[in-house]
Amino acid sequence: MSFSLARASRIAEADAIGIAGERAVCDPRGVLYFPGLRLLAVSDLHLEKGSSLARRGSLIPPYDTGATLIRLQEVIADYQPAIVISLGDSFHDGGGAGRMHASFRERLEALMAGRDWFWVAGNHDPEAPAGLPGETVRELAIGSLVFRHEPSKVRVEGEISGHLHPCARIVQQGRSVRRRCFAGDGGRMIMPAFGAYTGSLNVLDRAYAGLFRLESLMAYMMGTQRVFAISGSMLRPG
């Protein structure tokens, strides 16, 4: 069921946080919205992952692209952004855009119409998606923010990235809860993967070592209707 625009506004009031001085909304559907910039960021769509795996002999239902685009259509309809940034691995491989069914291509182009759309190059899709509008960039700086696919090993204030597919785990009253999350420390943010067939990696994994100030690490865990801000001290591996 789609969220309404009024619902998106309530999320904006309840779940707004600060990143390098810019107000941002962690939407529980896995996108990041900057009201002051009218900018929506989404990461790791991995469109056409199903068809990519099928070419390698893994036969899974080819529904991922359609499901991902429907969800993306809903958040764009709610926020009506002027700018959309897809933070890399938008397609699961370099040929994904060329394999996309015409109906999916039409839906995607309709979402892109009338707004600035940036494809950030990822490790799965380092080149511009074939035959699609929008501008392909390695990274993009807007105001105090820098958008790129892989987080920098050297700290960059205001960096918004993806790639690692973060999730978080907590244990309360003997019950373990594991959810995808936005991971940040007030100065940088790593976004969850948006794609239908994507996995996740715990924010305490060694792949994140050195990326955050541990004393201010927060995991914004995605619930059904909202995100939950969990301090780093409450997080558990696994």
Over the alpha carbons, how many angstroms does the gyration radius reach?
17 Å
The total count of helices amounts to 5
Structural category: alpha/beta
Give a short account of the largest sheet.
9 strands, mixed
Q: Quaternary state, please?
A: single chain
End-to-end Cα distance, whole Å, is: 31 Å
- The CATH class assignment is Alpha Beta
Overall number of domains: 1
Here the CATH topology equals Purple Acid Phosphatase, chain A, domain 2
What is the compact description of this entry?
The protein has helices spanning 5-14, 49-55, 64-79, 96-99, 102-112, and strands at residues 16-19, 22-26, 32-34, 39-42, 83-86, 116-120, 135-137, 139-142, 145-148, 159-161, 166-172, 175-184, 188-190, 201-202, 218-222, 227-231. It is α/β, with parallel strands linked by helices.
Keywords for this entry:
238 residues, alpha/beta, Purple Acid Phosphatase, chain A, domain 2, 9-stranded mixed beta sheet, 7-stranded mixed beta sheet
Q: Mind explaining what this structure looks like?
A:
This protein is an alpha/beta fold and 238 residues long. The chain is built from 5 helices and 16 strands. It has helices at residues 5-14, 49-55, 64-79, 96-99, 102-112, and strands at residues 16-19, 22-26, 32-34, 39-42, 83-86, 116-120, 135-137, 139-142, 145-148, 159-161, 166-172, 175-184, 188-190, 201-202, 218-222, 227-231. Helix 1 crosses helix 3 and helix 3 (64-79) packs parallel to helix 5. The longest helix is centred in the N-terminal third of the chain and has 16 residues, at 64-79.
